[in-house]
Specification:
Elements (H helix, E strand, L loop, with lengths): L3 H11 L8 H11 L13 H7 L3 E3 L8 E4 L9 E5 L4 E2 L12 H6 L3 E5 L2
Antiparallel strand pairs: 1-5, 2-3, 2-5, 3-4
Helix pairs in contact: 1-2
Amino acid sequence: MWNAHRAATYARLHALGGSQGRCAEFVSRAVRAGGAPLQNTHYARDMGSNLRLAGFHQVYGSPVEGDIAVIQPTQHHPIGHACIYDGQQWMSDFKQQHGMYPGEEYRKVRPSYAIYRHD
Protein backbone atom coordinates (compact mmCIF):
# COMPACT_ATOMS: atom_id res chain seq x y z
CA MET A 1 0.00 0.00 0.00
CA TRP A 2 1.34 3.41 -1.01
CA ASN A 3 2.55 5.74 1.73
CA ALA A 4 3.67 9.12 0.35
CA HIS A 5 5.07 10.25 3.69
CA ARG A 6 7.25 7.16 3.99
CA ALA A 7 8.58 7.67 0.44
CA ALA A 8 9.30 11.36 1.06
CA THR A 9 10.99 10.64 4.38
CA TYR A 10 13.16 7.96 2.78
CA ALA A 11 14.21 10.42 0.05
CA ARG A 12 15.06 13.14 2.56
CA LEU A 13 17.08 10.79 4.79
CA HIS A 14 19.08 9.32 1.87
CA ALA A 15 19.72 12.50 -0.15
CA LEU A 16 23.40 13.36 -0.43
CA GLY A 17 25.13 16.74 -0.28
CA GLY A 18 25.30 17.19 -4.05
CA SER A 19 24.34 15.53 -7.30
CA GLN A 20 25.86 12.14 -7.99
CA GLY A 21 24.12 11.69 -11.36
CA ARG A 22 21.94 8.96 -9.82
CA CYS A 23 18.55 10.67 -9.52
CA ALA A 24 16.52 7.83 -11.11
CA GLU A 25 18.09 5.30 -8.74
CA PHE A 26 17.48 7.38 -5.60
CA VAL A 27 13.92 8.36 -6.55
CA SER A 28 13.10 4.75 -7.48
CA ARG A 29 14.33 3.57 -4.11
CA ALA A 30 12.18 6.18 -2.35
CA VAL A 31 9.11 5.12 -4.35
CA ARG A 32 9.67 1.47 -3.44
CA ALA A 33 10.18 2.48 0.22
CA GLY A 34 6.74 4.10 -0.02
CA GLY A 35 5.23 0.78 -1.08
CA ALA A 36 4.85 1.12 -4.87
CA PRO A 37 6.30 -1.69 -7.02
CA LEU A 38 8.35 0.52 -9.35
CA GLN A 39 10.57 -1.08 -11.99
CA ASN A 40 13.98 0.49 -12.65
CA THR A 41 14.60 2.64 -15.69
CA HIS A 42 18.02 3.40 -17.07
CA TYR A 43 17.27 7.06 -17.80
CA ALA A 44 15.31 9.44 -15.59
CA ARG A 45 13.56 10.90 -18.66
CA ASP A 46 11.86 7.52 -19.20
CA MET A 47 10.41 6.97 -15.71
CA GLY A 48 6.86 8.09 -16.56
CA SER A 49 5.68 4.82 -18.08
CA ASN A 50 6.97 2.77 -15.14
CA LEU A 51 5.37 5.18 -12.67
CA ARG A 52 2.03 4.69 -14.43
CA LEU A 53 2.46 0.91 -14.26
CA ALA A 54 3.10 1.28 -10.51
CA GLY A 55 -0.22 3.08 -9.99
CA PHE A 56 0.76 6.73 -10.46
CA HIS A 57 -1.07 9.18 -12.70
CA GLN A 58 -0.10 12.55 -14.12
CA VAL A 59 -1.33 15.60 -12.22
CA TYR A 60 -1.19 19.36 -12.66
CA GLY A 61 -0.83 22.21 -10.21
CA SER A 62 1.05 22.50 -6.94
CA PRO A 63 2.92 19.40 -5.78
CA VAL A 64 2.03 17.47 -2.64
CA GLU A 65 4.19 15.18 -0.53
CA GLY A 66 5.20 12.10 -2.50
CA ASP A 67 4.74 13.57 -5.98
CA ILE A 68 7.37 12.60 -8.54
CA ALA A 69 8.61 14.97 -11.26
CA VAL A 70 10.10 13.53 -14.45
CA ILE A 71 11.98 16.23 -16.32
CA GLN A 72 13.08 15.91 -19.92
CA PRO A 73 16.72 16.34 -21.04
CA THR A 74 18.71 19.44 -21.75
CA GLN A 75 21.65 19.71 -24.13
CA HIS A 76 24.22 18.84 -21.46
CA HIS A 77 22.01 16.51 -19.42
CA PRO A 78 20.70 13.92 -21.94
CA ILE A 79 19.27 11.51 -19.35
CA GLY A 80 16.82 14.03 -17.92
CA HIS A 81 16.03 14.26 -14.22
CA ALA A 82 13.67 12.82 -11.63
CA CYS A 83 12.85 14.08 -8.16
CA ILE A 84 10.34 13.54 -5.37
CA TYR A 85 8.61 16.26 -3.37
CA ASP A 86 8.91 15.88 0.41
CA GLY A 87 6.24 18.44 1.22
CA GLN A 88 8.71 21.33 1.35
CA GLN A 89 11.41 20.74 -1.24
CA TRP A 90 12.36 18.49 -4.12
CA MET A 91 14.76 15.59 -3.48
CA SER A 92 16.65 13.40 -5.90
CA ASP A 93 20.07 12.00 -5.10
CA PHE A 94 20.57 15.33 -3.31
CA LYS A 95 18.46 17.98 -1.59
CA GLN A 96 17.58 20.43 -4.35
CA GLN A 97 17.96 23.98 -3.08
CA HIS A 98 16.43 25.78 -6.07
CA GLY A 99 13.13 24.05 -6.72
CA MET A 100 12.21 21.26 -9.09
CA TYR A 101 14.85 22.08 -11.71
CA PRO A 102 18.11 20.74 -10.28
CA GLY A 103 20.75 22.90 -11.91
CA GLU A 104 21.45 26.15 -13.68
CA GLU A 105 20.96 24.79 -17.20
CA TYR A 106 17.61 23.25 -16.24
CA ARG A 107 16.48 26.51 -14.64
CA LYS A 108 17.50 28.48 -17.72
CA VAL A 109 16.08 26.13 -20.38
CA ARG A 110 13.06 24.92 -18.34
CA PRO A 111 12.51 21.68 -20.27
CA SER A 112 9.11 20.01 -20.21
CA TYR A 113 8.19 17.83 -17.27
CA ALA A 114 5.36 15.74 -15.87
CA ILE A 115 4.34 15.32 -12.24
CA TYR A 116 3.00 11.97 -11.09
CA ARG A 117 0.94 11.15 -8.00
CA HIS A 118 -0.19 7.91 -6.43
CA ASP A 119 -3.57 8.22 -4.67
